[in-house]
Amino acid sequence: MRHVDSFEIQAPPPPAHNGVPRSAWSRTRRRVSRWHRPYIAILLVLDFAAAVLASWLSISLFEKATAGFTDADKDATWFHTVTYLLLPLGWLVVLWGNRAYDRRYLGLGTDEFKRVIRAAVTVAASVSFLAFSTKTNLSRLSVATALVGAMMFILYGRAVARLLLHIIRRRAGYAAHRMVLVGTLPEALEVHTAVTRSPAAGLIPVAIHLTDGYAAARGIETPVPVYSGRDVLALVREVGADTIAVCGSASAEPGELRRLAWQLEGSGVDLVVAPQLTDIAGPRVHIRPIEGLPLLHVEEPTLSGPALLAKNLMDRVAAGLGLLVLLPVFAAIAIAIRISDPGPVFFRQPRVGHEGRTFRVWKFRTMYVDAEDRLAALVDQNETDGMLFKIRQDPRVFPVGRFLRASSLDELPQLINVLKGEMSLVGPRPLPADDGDFLGDVRRRLLVRPGMTGLWQVSGRSDLSWDEAVRLDLYYVDNWSLAYDLSILWRTIGVVLARKGAY
After folding, report:
1. CB 269 within 8 A of CB 32
2. The dihedral of CA 272, 273, 274, 277: what is its sign?
3. Burial of 91 (C-beta count, 10 Å sphere; 0-12/13-18/19+)
4. Are residues 104 and 66 part of one domain?
5. N or C: at which end does the chain have fewer Cβ atoms within 10 angstroms?
6. 150, 171, 192 - which closes a domain
7. Burial (Cβ within 10 Å: 0-12, 13-18, ≥19) of residue 289
8. What's the burial of 158, exposed, middle or buried (CB within 10 Å: 0-12/13-18/19+)?
9. Within this chain, do residues 489 and 354 fall inside the same structural domain, yes or no?
10. Do 196 and 262 sit in the same domain of this protein?
């Protein structure tokens, strides 16, 4: 952190760029981040190998697969050319056409995987059409195995590649974009906090350019240098950045934003906008231009319908199967708890659930039986704010309970609540029923079922402030989807293994 005590005043910048002379920047063009080029090359190799592997697996599993092709036995060379070259190349072409190699969708979010699935549907439809139009007799089982297998292998390969990319970004700081934040100081600091909380996103703020003057930042601690009165493009070159992020109210100046976009044409510098609608996700926002005026239309959140029915079905099936598979684990944990501290194995506490209904949550007991009696003496040691009480080294937790908490094994009995329909696999965490009336924004959490894991858990867990935790929960309520749930479940695995924020 540093204090802002001085800044450099420059002469007024030259007249604004009008979008015509595009060669001015190229004469002083600098080196920009190109991490995505080798990454895309790796993905191309992985995707091609995945399609080849799926074809080989299909043929190996079904020895008569070659009989599904017309005259395949007579022309084995053509059969192998189609199977191991043309079909994999077709996968790459369709993936490219679905923008599955677009760097904007790589490394973060679910769009990359959605595009792979769309490509798989396209490939399946294309193969079916070609087989029908050429009257080729195909083995349906072998072709289905090859296509579905290719999709699964491609998804798995991309997940592994993304995991390695995230590790490189976290540990070495490579394959990242250096950002200059443009806006007022509070808006820029809010964006800085959001992007630095997730190193896997590959965004590293290196400077802040104030739009409301230097006086607004005098004497305030900032994590990166603060500038004002500078030409933004000159500042980008000076600090070695490759991305400009326009924050909050600065994005509301359409003329300035448009001219800045003109200036960046052909420069290799990315322009991103962090609008004031920070808690509304892309699928709910649609641009509807009227006479050249782009209007952002914000849809209502989806809190009912087929998607919710599918979510409930997935919850019940997963919870039932999970309880059956984990019975030996439950027995081992129960024995360890009874040996550590005689008393009940489970801890049941009233929590507030969907639409304000109260239920009792199931958890493995991690504290001594007299924990409630000792709480009053520890209240002033609380390390969190809001409705929660947390101490990193809580003396009421016995050793086995500390391990259960760190590994999140104490949460597994909540599968019972999920099976009963009181909770979901993903959702806001259920809060104790005696911690308040859930007034104001907090009450909106009750529009969906509480979850065993959620956006709060995968974003920091107990390390987050109460306000930040509420903001994340409300973001989930307003923007949930089945794909988002699967993404959170996947991220939960990494958070649990890292034992981040669990105490």
Report:
1. yes
2. negative
3. buried
4. yes
5. N
6. 171
7. exposed
8. buried
9. yes
10. yes
Same domain, 73 and 216: no
d(CA 422, CA 431): 13
Report how many domains make up the chain.
Answer: 3
Same domain flag for 57 and 197: no
- Tokens of residue 400, six digits: 């086995």
User: Are 150 and 7 contained in the same domain?
Assistant: no
Q: Which residues pair with 178 in a beta bridge?
A: 204
What confidence score (pLDDT) does residue 463 get?
A: 67
- CB–CB of 99/168 below 8 Å? no
Asked if 359 and 414 touch (Cβ cutoff 8 Å), the reply is no
What is the chain's Cα-based Rg?
27
How far apart CA 422 and CA 404 sit, in angstroms, is 23
Claim to verify: residue 469 and residue 396 sit in the same structural domain? yes
CATH assignment at residue 206: 3.40.50.720
Cα–Cα distance for residue pair 280/297, rounded to 1 Å: 11
403 assigned to some structural domain? yes
Helix axes 306-325, 482-498, angle to 10 degrees: 30
Residue 296 lies in a domain: no
Nearest to 151 by CA among 42, 38, 57, 41: 57
Domain contains 286: no
Q: Which residues of the chain have pLDDT under 70?
A: 1-33, 62-75, 213-219, 250-254, 276-283, 286-294, 296, 373, 375-390, 392, 434-439, 461-463, 499-503
CA–CA distance, 250 with 340 (Å, rounded to integer): 58
CB distance 351 to 444 below 8 Å: no
Instruction: Report residue 397 CA to chain centroid gap.
Output: 32
Give yes or no: residues 69 and 164 share one domain. yes
Domain of residue 226, residue span: 2-32+176-278
pLDDT recorded at residue 9: 41
Whole-number pLDDT of residue 385: 56
The conformation of residue 120, written as its DSSP 8-state character, comes to H
Domain boundary residue, one of 171, 190, 220: 171
Q: What is the pLDDT of residue 73?
A: 52
DSSP assignment of 203-254 equals EEEEEEEESS-GGGGTT-EESS-EEESS-HHHHHHHHT--EEEEEGGGGG-H
Would 503 be classed as within a structural domain?
Answer: no
Nearest Cα to Cα of residue 92 among 46, 39, 57: 46
Q: Which two tokens stand for residue 442?
A: 């907090």
Cβ–Cβ contacts within 10 Å for residue 292, how many?
Answer: 5
Predicted pLDDT of residue 381: 62
Question: Rounded to whole angstroms, how far apart are CA atoms 215 and 450?
Answer: 45
The pLDDT tens digits of the residues spanning 179-238 come to 999 988 888 888 888 888 778 888 889 999 988 766 666 667 888 988 888 888 889 988
Rounded Cα gap, residues 58 and 40, in angstroms: 27
